[in-house]
Amino acid sequence: MNGPNESALFAYLKSQRGFEGFDLNDKKGQMMHNMLLKRDADYAAKPNIKWNFTKFLVGRDGRVLKRYEPTASMSDVEKDIAEALRP
After folding, report:
1. Non-local CB neighbours of 4 within 8 Å, separated by 6+ positions
2. Per-residue pLDDT for the chain (87 aa), expressed as one digit of tens each?
3. Cβ within 8 Å of residue 84, ≥6 positions away
4. Which among 57, 60, 58, 68 is positioned nearest to 86, based on CA atoms?
5. 61: buried, middle or exposed (CB in 10 Å: 19+, 13-18, 0-12)?
6. CA-CA to 23 of 20 to 30 Å: which in 34, 53, 62, 66?
7. What is the 3-state secondary structure (H, E, C) of the chain?
8. What residues form DSSP beta bridges with 67?
9. CA–CA separation, 17 vs 50, rounded Å?
10. By the 8 A CB rule, do 87 and 63 touch?
11. Is residue 22 within 8 Å of 71, Cβ to Cβ?
């Protein structure tokens, strides 16, 4: 997913939708932020996938519509999918 041997798919997805941050008002978001900050003080400026379960929503035309970090609410993901599927 990251690094010199990353797949072309992940390189493309990350180039289209970089990391937008965690919700720091959420306990999980705070935990992820603090953990990653200890490893790399500049982690938030990099488009790398930060942890398992990062998701991308790709439209019918191949455009990357959204990126969801592991702390994202699945109800938000579901709403966005429903919106993307509307004719």
Report:
1. none
2. 899 999 999 999 999 999 999 999 999 999 999 999 999 999 999 999 998 899 999 999 999 999 999 999 999 999 999 999 998
3. 57, 59, 60, 65
4. 60
5. exposed
6. 62
7. CCCCCCCHHHHHHHHHCCCCCCCCCCHHHHHHHHHHHHHCCCHHHCCCCCCCCCEEEECCCCCEEEEECCCCCHHHHHHHHHHHHCC
8. 56
9. 13
10. no
11. yes
What tokens does 52 get? 């398992």
Query: Rounded CA gap, 86 and 83, in Å?
Result: 5
Residue 70 has which token pair?
């592991």
Fill in the amino acid letter for 57: L
Query: Any idea how long the chain is?
Result: 87
